[in-house]
Amino acid sequence: MYIREAHPSDGWQMPQNQKDGVVYKDPKTEEEREEVASDCVKSLKLPIPCLIDDMKNTAGTAYSGWPDRIYIVGTDGRIVYKGDPGPKGFDVEAAREKFKALVK
Questions:
Q1: Tens of pLDDT, residues 42-89
Q2: What's the CA gap between 90 and 99, in Å, rounded?
Q3: Kind of pairing, strands 79-82 and 71-73?
Q4: Can you tell me whether residue 25 is helix, strand or coil?
Q5: Is the peptide bond before 87 cis (omega within 30 degrees of 0)?
């Protein structure tokens, strides 16, 4: 899910973002947020749908999505896996195992 821009060019810009050409102003409208998310999906060649948080940052706040997290949500809408804050808290193997158990 794309939540608010973490390192906007009109805010706390990271030098690495400039090197990588990931330079976006903080979106002020849903359309602007959709454009940034679309660019992200294209540049990362994501094979899965991308959800976009609303302008009130409802999902980002509810799921503690900053700095970043891994969540797995079951088909019933319940959270079945919540990782620690990333990137240092990522346990990709634990998430993978939980996901495999769900899709058996």
A1: 988 988 888 999 999 998 888 886 677 888 888 888 999 998 887 788
A2: 15
A3: antiparallel
A4: coil
A5: yes
Distances in Å between the Cα of 94 and the Cα atoms of 66, 87, 97 are: 20, 14, 5
- Distant-in-sequence contacts of 67-75, Cβ < 8 A, 24+ apart: 67/6, 70/95, 72/98, 72/99, 72/102, 74/102
Amino acid letter, residue 33? R
Residue written as token pair 């019933």: 76
Helix extents (H) in 1-104 = 15-20, 30-44, 58-62, 92-102
Q: What residue type is assigned to position 3 of the chain? A: I
In angstroms, the CA 104 to CA 26 distance is 40
Is pTM beyond 0.85 here?
no
Q: Between the CA of residue 76 and those of 14, 48, 59, 79, 99, what are the distances in Å?
A: 38, 19, 17, 9, 14
- Given a contact cutoff of 8 angstroms between Cβ atoms, the answer to whether 7 and 23 are in contact is no
Domain edges within the chain: 1-65, 67-104
